[in-house]
Design a protein that fits this description.
The chain is globular, with a radius of gyration of 19 Å. It has one domain. The chain is mostly helical and about 300 residues long.
Length: about 300
């Protein structure tokens, strides 16, 4: 068996930069799809979520060749299936939030998952957070309050910042459960490629009927909408996540998690360049405070 050679530090850094940038484009592609279609709201967001996951699932079909049911411990598939449900809820909630609140507020709030992972781990796995993590939670809470107070709605067309911010937080809560359930599934013998294939497929199958139930459709949109959906699946979903997962293999997960905190910065900057979207002062201050709180919580994490 060949031994993997440690890549040069500059290469790892470059991969992280590419991964964070790719992840930052997710909110932009959602907004571009909304602008191109002239439609927003729950039904269209469900269409985007289901289509994105379906395309990602198709691209991961080769991973099913490595799937071996006999090598799994009891409960692995149940945890993976539950993670798929949470991932479906995550994309539905977060993508919908972008119809009602600013890119800066949405991407900042949805990236608070380290806080919620620490809280759930405390109650579920009895993994008591450190004092620094608790301090980070408190600081992040202050930042969240500032964002909620200052987001007066830069999104035109039926903007509802309070609803959008709540949906972004719901996206953070559900992705936190997705991460914890995924950890348990992989601890029970499910390899990363098989796990991702199962989770994406489960989430896609769950979401596929919902656009139709809510009165939307998979056809009749301008070609650019389908292009943006394809780009969502290729860049933030596969390139972004794969790059960051690869980087974790070679450097501290803490450093990778901290790097991910630049996603709201990149998304907000792209939002300004493309949509001329300028968040309110309180939103910007709140985002900085919240990200500092999340960083403190990450530094205080024992795992």
């Amino acid at each position: 068996m060949s031994i993997l050679q440690q890549p040069r530090p500059w290469l790892v850094g470059l991969v992280i930069v590419v991964g964070v940038f790719a992840a930052s484009t997710s909110a932009i592609f959602v907004r571009l799809a909304i602008a191109s279609s002239g439609v927003n709201g729950v039904a269209f967001s469900l269409f985007l979520s289901a289509s994105r996951l379906a395309i990602a699932s198709l691209l991961l079909l080769p991973a099913w060749r490595k799937f071996q049911l006999t090598s799994l411990s009891p409960g692995a598939l149940r945890y993976a299936g539950a993670a798929g449900i949470c991932l479906a809820l995550h994309f539905s909630a977060w993508i919908t939030s972008l119809s009602f609140t600013s890119i800066a507020a949405s991407t900042t709030l949805v990236n608070t998952n380290p806080i919620w992972v620490a809280l759930v781990s405390w109650f579920w796995f009895k993994e008591k957070p450190s004092r620094l993590t608790l301090l980070g939670m408190g600081v992040a809470l202050v930042g969240g309050v500032l964002i909620t107070s200052g987001d007066t709605g830069v999104v035109t067309g039926g903007s509802n910042p309070l609803l959008g911010n709540f949906l972004a937080l719901l996206g953070a809560w559900t992705v936190s459960l997705y991460l914890l359930l995924g950890r348990e599934a992989q601890r029970r013998g499910l390899g990363i490629s098989s796990y991702i294939a199962i989770v994406y497929s489960t989430a896609a199958l769950i979401l596929l009927p919902f656009p139709l139930i809510f009165g939307s459709s998979y056809t009749g949109y301008p070609p650019t909408v389908y292009l943006y959906v394809l780009l969502m699946a290729a860049f933030p979903q596969l390139l972004g996540h794969t790059s960051l997962n690869w980087a974790v293999r070679w450097i501290s997960p803490t450093l990778v998690t901290l790097a991910i905190l630049f996603e709201p910065v990149g998304a907000s900057f792209l939002g300004y360049l493309i949509f001329k979207e300028v968040p309110g002062l309180l939103v910007l201050v709140g985002a900085i405070v919240l990200l500092i709180g999340v960083a403190l919580a990450i530094f205080g994490s024992k795992n």
